[in-house]
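Why should sequence recovery work at all? Because a backbone constrains its sequence more than one might expect. Tight turns favour small or flexible residues, buried strands favour hydrophobic ones, and helices have their own preferences. The token representation captures these environments compactly. In the example below, the structure is given first.
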């Protein structure tokens, strides 16, 4: 299973659409906040795609959840924008929430800095900002999980 992970589009629907077009094998798109309207507009162009969104600090008047826990393949994903977990001040709040949720994979945004790491049995990915051309791909296979940072 391939998952397209984007965040922080901040009004850049074009780059968001380019990322979707660049990953035709993705069966799920996860938008990690600060671009809910952008994702809604792009989603209308790809009605068959499953989309998960969380609310970012810039998604004014959004009704989206702050966090989403989703099962994909046989893995449990914890999705958050990251601002409410203080990701700019370090990752301890996010790590605690991920462990409490029983996450195998943690996806977050907010910092605009692409990061992928593995710690204590959990894969972490921040795809960076799609507005600045970065996004992420998560592949879940029988052999395991692969997280890859990409550029459009």
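From this structural description, the recovered sequence reads:
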């Amino acid at each position: 299973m391939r998952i397209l992970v984007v965040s922080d589009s901040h009004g850049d629907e074009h780059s968001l659409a380019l990322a979707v077009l660049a990953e035709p094998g993705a069966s799920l798109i996860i938008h990690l906040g600060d671009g809910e309207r952008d994702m809604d507009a792009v989603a209308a162009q790809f009605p068959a795609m499953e989309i998960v969104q969380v609310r970012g600090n810039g998604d004014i008047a959004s009704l989206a959840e702050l966090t989403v826990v989703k099962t994909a393949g046989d893995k449990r994903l914890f999705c958050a924008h990251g601002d409410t977990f203080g990701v700019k001040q370090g990752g301890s709040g996010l790590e605690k929430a991920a462990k409490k949720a029983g996450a195998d994979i943690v996806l977050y945004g907010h910092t605009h800095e692409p990061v992928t790491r593995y710690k204590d049995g959990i894969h972490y990915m921040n795809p960076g900002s799609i507005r600045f051309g970065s996004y992420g791909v998560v592949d879940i296979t029988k052999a395991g999980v692969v997280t890859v940072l990409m550029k459009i």
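A few observations help interpret the result. The CA atoms of residues 2 and 26 lie 5 Å apart.
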